[in-house]
Design a protein that fits this description.
Helix content is 23%, strand content 35%. By secondary structure, the protein is α/β, with parallel strands linked by helices. It has a single domain, classed as Vaccinia Virus protein VP39 (Rossmann fold, 3-Layer(aba) Sandwich), CATH 3.40.50.150. The strands form two sheets. A seven-stranded mixed β-sheet has the order 7-6-5-8-9-11-10. The protein has a four-stranded antiparallel β-sheet with strand order 1-2-3-4, with no helix packed on it. A hairpin with a 6-residue loop joins strand 2 (16-24) and strand 3 (31-37). The longest helix is centred in the first third of the chain and has 12 residues, at 49-60. Mean pLDDT is 92; it is low at 240-244.
């Protein structure tokens, strides 16, 4: 095995074979962590701007008060870490369908693992975010029916490009209404997407929330040259939510 590449872990999961890899970037000489599902790249520590902006843009719309936040999708932990960097956040629950990913953090195999697992405000939960959203018990197994000030979601590639067909229902008006039921009345829902702003999805948000905005986030892409973009959707019912 090359010293510039290491497969840290590989595990079979219900949705396919997942692997955690570390490679040395020849340009920056930094370690880059990558997660693959089969032959498909799911995430990379080389591209974290959108994941960080998901937390920052979502939480920016909330008042200066103590906040309870739920994150759908742990990944490499950059959204969770950005949420914990906000001093208003008093509790954070992070839900991931893959116990293997949670285990990477608990074993310290990924850069942010020790930081997330040692923060007493943060709890990592193994569960199906989409099924939990549809359940009356909600997103916190320890407190059924609990509501949150913000729900930040980064699981699927986009509302149109989902990892499993059953996820698609959440991105329509009926699914979004169910999700909104897990928010406080003035709470915020924010979503990361790898695609440009989607008119069909923004219309669905407008059916459910009083205000919504699609933020286009640019970041450097050294693999392709130039810049790439993600979209961060922010929606809610409080005055000012979703405004630039």
């Amino acid at each position: 095995m090359s010293l510039r590449f290491e497969e840290i872990d590989w595990q079979p999961t219900p949705i396919g074979e997942i692997s955690l890899r570390r490679r040395r970037d020849p340009v920056s000489d930094d370690d880059v962590y990558e997660v693959k599902l089969g032959d498909e790249f799911l995430m990379s520590s080389l591209f974290t701007t959108g994941e960080i902006e998901l937390a920052e843009l979502g939480l920016a719309q909330l008042p200066d008060a103590e906040l309870d936040v739920a994150v759908g999708g742990l990944g490499l932990g950059y959204t969770a870490r950005a949420a914990l960097d906000d001093p208003r956040v008093r509790s954070l629950i992070v839900i991931d369908a893959l116990a293997e990913v949670i285990d990477w953090h608990r074993r310290g195999l990924v850069p942010l693992g020790a930081q997330l697992t040692s923060d007493t405000r943060c709890r990592l939960v193994h569960g199906d975010f989409f099924a939990m959203t549809e359940s009356s018990s909600g997103l916190d197994p320890d407190e059924p029916g609990r509501r949150f000030h913000a729900i930040l979601l980064d699981i699927d590639h986009s509302p149109r490009h989902v990892l499993h067909p059953r996820h698609a229902a959440l991105y329509g008006p009926d699914g979004l209404r169910v999700l909104a039921g897990h928010l406080h009345p003035d709470g915020v829902f924010a979503l990361w997407s790898n695609d440009p702003p989607d008119e069909q999805f923004t219309s669905a948000l407008a059916d459910v929330f009083a205000q919504s905005t699609a933020h286009v986030v640019e970041f450097d892409n050294p693999l392709q040259g130039g810049t790439s973009t993600n979209t961060i959707y922010v929606a809610g019912n409080a005055s000012g939510t979703g405004r630039q």
